[in-house]
Specification:
Chain lengths: ~500, ~200
Amino acid sequence: MKARFPNSHRNYDAVRFLDTEASRRKLLFDSAVGLGGIALAWLLQKDSQSSESSQPTSMELEPHFPARAKRIVQIFCGGGVSHIDTFDHKLELERLHGKSIDNKGENIGFFGQPGKIMKSPFEFQQHGQCGAWVSELFPNLSRCVDDIAFIHSMVAKSNNHTPATFQMNSGFTLNGFPSMGAWISYGLGTVNENLPTFVVLPDPAGLPAGGSINWTAGFLPASHQGVAFRTQSGREPIEDLQTPESISSASRSASLEALQALNRQYAERNLGDSSLVARVRSYELAARMQLTVPEATDLDEESEATLSEYGIDDSRSAGLGRNCLMARRLLERGVRFVQLFSGGAFGQPRNNWDAHESVIENHSKMAATLDKPVAALIQDLKRRGMLEDTLVVWCTEFGRGPATQGIDKPGRDHHPNAFTCFLAGAGIKPGFRYGASDEIGYFAVENPVTIHDFHATILHLLGLDHKRLTYYHNGIQRRLTDVHGSVVTELFN
Amino acid sequence: MSATYRQSSTFNPPAFSVDSDNTWLWRFAPRRLEGEIVRDAMLAVSGQLNPEMHGPSFMPFIVTKFNSDFYEPIDPIGAEFNRRTIYRANINSGKSPMLDALDCPDPSIKIPARRVTTTPLAALALMNNSFVHRQAMHLAKRIASEANGNQRQAIELAFQICFGRSATSDELSLSLELVENNELTSLCWALMNATEFMYVN
């Protein structure tokens, strides 16, 4: 907070805003709420329809340059999706099926027991106007290819899940660095204070490797941390959202009114510190959030057709389907960044995309959870005109290798040297493919895209310069992209 | 100790007009207690603080195993969990939503100084967290018994305990009105949520 540490480094704090607006910006970061009239009256109105209480307020920050994307939804597939069995079609694998891998150097898998080359067990076909190859795993998603730009030359740093997952989410393989969502919240602020800026929707099957570290604010102010909704049905989405049942609403209103009176008087007695005023306002916003969050996450008002399109009527896809539909509702209501996870924790039985034992078994099962929901999300955003300024990011921590894992086994090991991710929507060239892996999907040979490049590109679409979005921490102006990253402008239309 | 160090937090309009951020230290900047200390203070006023020092940490979470350990933070009841928060086992992947909202940093990183944020999520945690409610109930019981059931005395006691000062006449009437129709707990809840409870001047 301002002047909390007057003799330390505060002049370096958030150097991005060392301009004349510095003080206002810092106030917004630290308070997440602004100054202004403190109306308590509405708190006592139990009517959720009251226009005053439902009117969202904005604490938006100016981007560095005009943004193509206003909001972003990211689908992260934990475990490592095999590029050569999904979107990166390699005819050569059929010819080399059963042969050894030659001339590719040291094995880069995690378990170090590569068998022979294995062709994909899935049929590939070309789809859409753009003719993108997609395997039979995604009958619905394959109909969206004309809206998608595939990047076939992704490269990750680690062949180990947790560091690779951290890298995709924070730019660093070590934990403790702010996640991309936290950086975006820090850079752009919020358009609807009644909802969190950065919402995380974990797979109902469980948390990804590293759990909440993947959406931490790291050293950024805590207000930028991702708010993980509890996506198992029947639980309130945010812990401590609702007044405990033992307390009547009349009693809560009365005590809240008394509390606000005490807090207002305290702020009046201790002038000159905006955080005291911000505290009064934070309780107003909290009371509003108690109304807006259940409304935003309630899928009851969605039509049967919509539920079915998202695959919510199918037990396999119901979990991610609900999350994708919830994501659309949150984006519509001004949430800046929704991050969805496909796949839970590691181990047996396989609960994510980590197809060590059998690609056909594992990826068939996982694709059935994802295909309809993600396709429906893209189509739905498009129908609503939201795809024009909403960026859809589909990613995973690494791909899977062209050889089997072990002799005569149908599984594949981790493979960080080439894999596929895709972008769609705001500012992205539709029906486009960028970069390429070699003939067996082993190395990214054409226009390799590092995770840093990927992040720099995403920030750019949101109007943020990855080199200017910095935060001073322990002697270093930290960035999401460390000291790396180039914007892949070829992806922009 | 220097004069600067010993300053009060009293507001000074001329100083504020030239240095609103208090960069040149014209006063002691009011500061919010750290998240751990807010929790400790709640235990202290409710009479539930367990002063035991040293020894193994208390573990306010449940662990489930699925090839790896998963930590779910919970709000366990019992004296062993009412020790100062510094004795809590702080797990990277199983942090407490209430302490998080009060800016307790991620245990995996080192920070030179804490930021203080004021957010609706922190307000929600302080409003609805079961720990806060339990401590408010304990405080209500404590003051009711110490005041022998005298409502007015109980209120005065609550202000003394939570704020270290007497209630003003305004506050007294506001509080009397509140507890007339609601339980004493609702006043205790309000005092524990109050800015004055968690700020130092």
